[in-house]
Design a protein that fits this description.
With about 350 residues, the protein is an alpha/beta fold. Helix 6 links the parallel strand 9 and strand 10. Helix 7 runs parallel beside helix 8 and helix 7 packs across helix 10. The radius of gyration is 22 Å and the shape is globular.
């Protein structure tokens, strides 16, 4: 199949669900046309390029999506983007399937009236919108969903509370690699943080408290999103804390790691959206379990795979548990990875597409 992806992402950014799904489909023989984040009129667009089996496209937009607080501005920008996309489609193969990650692309049905259209909601876009945009964001996302044949979401909260209905289903991240049992060694004395170093969603105060109350080594791996605050600077000055830059999962050395740690700020609105953490799915094939903040919509899972904590004492309890039971937890981890494999998720996705294609002939 020829599959069009519409996103607000650049292909070379750190991998997210849209990259992961595109790569999964490419690996199974499909051709992906990846429409990247649109750029303002004053910036030159990429238009069309090829990179490692994916076709990259880009168009301009009149206004950033957070600068369209009224319907008229939304309609003007939408009409312009629609025209830009139509011009690009004349230069490429027609689609058999549309996968849309953009909450404001309600106009896609005008361009592709007969092509199955799946919208994938990976965030609560209304709660994330600027104050002046919330009302219009809510209007336009409902418009977009109404023109979608099916809605996929990575969040139980989105499925059950925000947009309940018959044509929405949960579609969680998966393990891109097969499980490989780690080597048993007494040198495993390191706790890993792997992911974006964010100062809004991550509670570094709790992280620092955990470090100070334990004797383990800590390694923080990932890109820093903005200038570190004083608390974070104090944390990385500890001689048991190592700060590493961005590292590809395939190059990440976990030979002395016994668990990962994620101390979320549970008061952040995005925590309601979180049903499964993508970075967890990337670490589990290496046999690395996770201690994570307890969140209201997180999936139920064995404590041998993911330990959920709501206090410093509970976090330390989970870290100690994995330090003492690292190898015995591997059986549960292997089972979880197998259940959430790339092949199983592809089968799940393919069944949905087959069902949508059958509707065309009814």
């Amino acid at each position: 199949m020829n599959i069009y992806f519409f996103t607000k992402t650049i292909w070379v950014e750190p991998p997210r669900m849209r990259h992961q799904l595109a790569r999964l489909l490419i690996a199974n023989g499909h051709k992906v046309f990846f429409f990247q984040k649109p750029v303002p009129l004053y910036r030159k667009k990429l238009e069309i390029d090829s990179l490692n089996e994916v076709i990259l496209l880009q168009h301009n937009e009149l206004l950033h999506h957070q600068l369209r607080p009224i319907k008229l501005l939304q309609l003007i920008n939408g009409a312009y983007c629609e025209h830009q996309i139509i011009k690009l489609t004349y230069k490429i193969s027609p689609p058999d399937l549309i996968i849309n990650f953009n909450y404001d692309y309600y106009f896609l049905r005008n361009i592709f009236p007969t092509v199955p259209l799946i919208t994938l909601l990976n965030d609560d876009f209304v709660s994330m919108a600027k104050l002046w945009m919330k009302r219009e964001a809510n209007r336009v996302i409902n418009h977009t969903l109404a023109y979608s044949d099916h809605i996929l979401t990575v969040s139980s909260y989105t499925k059950e509370d925000l947009y309940p209905g018959e044509n929405i289903s949960l579609f969680l991240p998966w393990c891109e690699h097969v499980y490989k049992k780690p080597i048993h060694t007494k040198e495993r004395n390191t706790v890993l943080y792997y992911g974006h170093i964010n100062f809004d969603r991550i509670n570094w105060s709790i992280f620092k408290n955990i470090v100070e109350k334990t004797n383990y080594n800590y390694r923080i791996v990932g890109p820093i999103e903005k200038t570190p605050n004083n608390l974070f600077k104090q944390l990385i000055n500890n001689n048991r804390v190592e700060l590493v830059g961005p590292e590809d999962i395939n190059e990440l050395d976990t030979s002395n790691v016994f668990c990962s740690l994620v101390t979320y700020n549970i008061n952040h609105p995005a925590m309601y959206d979180l049903t499964m953490n993508n970075r967890i799915m990337r670490l589990l094939p290496k046999g690395i379990p996770t201690v994570i903040s307890k969140m209201p919509y997180f999936i139920p899972v064995s404590k041998d795979v993911i330990w959920k904590a709501d206090s410093v004492i509970d976090f330390i309890g989970g870290i100690n548990y994995f330090h003492e039971n690292f190898m015995s937890a591997q059986q549960s981890i292997e089972k979880f990875v197998s259940k959430n494999s790339a092949s199983n998720r592809y089968v799940e996705f393919n069944k949905l597409v087959e069902k949508l294609n059958q509707r065309k002939y009814i």
